[in-house]
Amino acid sequence: MFPSTQIHTLDCHCIKCHNSHQKSSYAAKRTETRRNKRARVEAAMRNMDVDTEVIPTSRSDSVEAMDGQANSPFLDAASMFDNDRDDNDFDDNVEDEVNEIEIEDFNSEDPFAAPDMPKNEVHQFIAIFTVLFASRHVVDKGAAVLIEFINNLLRIYDQDFQLPTSLAGLQKMTGFSAITKGIKKFVVCQDCHTVYQDIVSAPPRCVSSKLGARSACNCNLTKSISSGALVAKREYVYQSIKNTLSVFFRRPSFEAKILRGTIIDPMHNLFLGTSKRLMDRWIDEKTIGPEEFASMEKIAETMVLPRDYTTLTTKIGKGFSYMKADEWKSWVLVYSPVLLHGILPPLQFKNWMYFVDACRYYVKPSITFDEITTAHSLLEKFCNACNVDYTATILTCNMHLHLHLHECIRDFGPVYGYWLFGFERYNGILKNFKTNGKDGFEATYMKNFVQNAYKGDYVNAVLKSSSQIPFIHTLSKLVTTSIPAATVTTLSSRPFRLQAFVQGYTDPYNPPKGNEPLPPSTFPLKYKKPSVMDDSDYLHLLEYYQVAYNLPDLASYQDTSYNRPALDNQIIKLKSIDILGQHYRGTNNSTISRGSLVQAKFVGSNGNIILGFAGQIQYLFTHSFQLPPTHNLHLTRMVHDHQHVFAFIKWFRTSSDRSREDDGVEFCLPTFSPDSYHSIIPVHRILLEVATATIATSRNVSKMLVIPLPKKLYA
């Protein structure tokens, strides 16, 4: 019935506090104890001529950093509430105190020490791979089956080694459990703030004498207080808080600070808020009915989206029932500009596009101040138009918060840093967390987060032999960070510069040639087997090099009659490529492939930039080309890298229809233009990903709508 751990406070008169202006400070009793003990130890060290720099002085509790938890964010809480030692059990003899703390305890220990790891390096790899694979892809029950399977294979091949039969034993043997060793779950009383080791040791009611021991802890208030008393207490607390805050809110500076310090979640504000509310309004007002839903679903079935966007088909036909935030996001950014055109009245559709355009700016991982201002202006137009197009009840507090999003982004950065999509996208994993073990949801989620953050460091620590380098490529697929950095190879000897890379796809007058540095996160590339380029495609590659490098005499590999440089036809195709958040891939001989629809800028015949050049990647490949020695390309200032990374793209035929440009949607024909050297394009020149939809006009002419999507830029 009594708490196993409580914090007792008193006046601290240690050396540090005694030297302060007030000669003391109000601190926890255990804090005063540590300070006094630390002072005695440091004095003894000085007397013994021991270098005191060994003892860290930046934290008052650093001497308590034991068991490899020196880097744990939970060390202070764990040591503060350590219940194994008596508060009053101290020895004033300094030498006894010194004997309790060895100098070696201050030296940093190996956080991933694994004394039980097998000596055989292959067996080490098997154990490390199993524990990493289980932590990423397998739940606890499945891990036991995986371990049993591997042990059977080891027995079949007469190996004198077996994995522990449980996942916990395997983690202990490999040192993987040390990552989360410092994570502990405590229970805190909401009234007196007493901290308990676990829910078992926590009493059902608050036992603090200051609060009269009448309230209850851990949401058990309803069990000990009648419903009438509960309502009265809540009303009393509410009025007390209101009266207290009203005094502060009378000060304009305080009001401004507390409002600017509040983060608005864009996921709920934009997608689960306004977009859902307007759809409900259109359904209630009969603007959209079953017939309109059926026609929209028919067009939606023809749409092709990038891999990062959730597809919607049947939910549109069912009236947008049980939509999640990710689905509302796809609806706003991709589907609605196409499907709502002709369904909503013209003024309402124009107003809706203000909202869509603002969302296109706000959802970008990287955003400029000018884009923030533009998005805010669009949301102002949207809210003002809603006040005209609908009744006053459409204007809610959620809509008012639209007008504070620009302040939130200016203060706290792009929305990717704090919106709540992460919790929704990992909802399936989190459901498993609730039933895994006795740690509970919070502790299990924290352990998973810490494991993912330090898996790369763990692999670097346990793979210490040079003979284990071949294992790194396999293990790198199971961690979220690159391991080790020294093994990642790039195709360019020049450093990557983001500004130059951005200029490559935004300035078609000075296009990259294909051998410029790519972002480090792009590597390692996912190669296929080397192959020979198709002869028809090879001719376009040859023409590309002739134009890009101004080499009209560059010959084909088949042309051996002339004494001039020839171009090799050997290429290596790529499975896919990730460039700053964009995932590109070829069609792989299929008609539709998500991630293959892109857009690029070109210079037209009249010298103007053509923005709406959309196409479909057929395949990605690398090609090696060495400039001839006689070629002058300002090589005195530039190092030529022979490896080039290209995409072979079939471009859609353009359309003269410009009726949807104001909506951010472009028309093109669903057929490809003839291949040319323009089909060979460096991956550096890909502007952004697009979605497409196929519609039929009133004359039964098939057209394709191209929806450019926000450019992602994970710098």
**Percentage of helical residues?**
25-40%
Uncertain ranges: 1-9, 48-108, 213-230, 428-437, 482-490, 634-638
Mean pLDDT: 75
Mind describing the biggest β-sheet?
6 strands, antiparallel, barrel
The main sheet orders its strands as: 11-12-13-14-17-16
**First-to-last CA distance:** 54 Å
Shape: globular
Strand content: 5-15%
* Helix count from the secondary structure assignment: 24
Alpha-carbon Rg, integer: 33 Å
Strand segment count: 17
Structural class from helices and strands?
A: alpha+beta
What does this structure look like?
This protein is α+β, with helices and mostly antiparallel strands and 715 residues long. Among the domains are: 121-180, no CATH class; 183-239, no CATH class; 257-422, no CATH class; 498-628 and 635-708, no CATH class. Helix content is 39%, strand content 14%. The strands form five sheets. A six-stranded antiparallel β-barrel has the order 11-12-13-14-17-16. Strands 1-2 form a two-stranded antiparallel ribbon. β11 and β12 form a beta hairpin.
Quick structural overview:
It comes from Phycomyces blakesleeanus (strain ATCC 8743b / DSM 1359 / FGSC 10004 / NBRC 33097 / NRRL 1555). Helices cover 39% and strands 14% of the residues.
Highlighted features:
six-stranded antiparallel beta barrel; 39% helix; two-stranded antiparallel sheet; 17 strands; alpha+beta; single chain; 715 residues; 24 helices
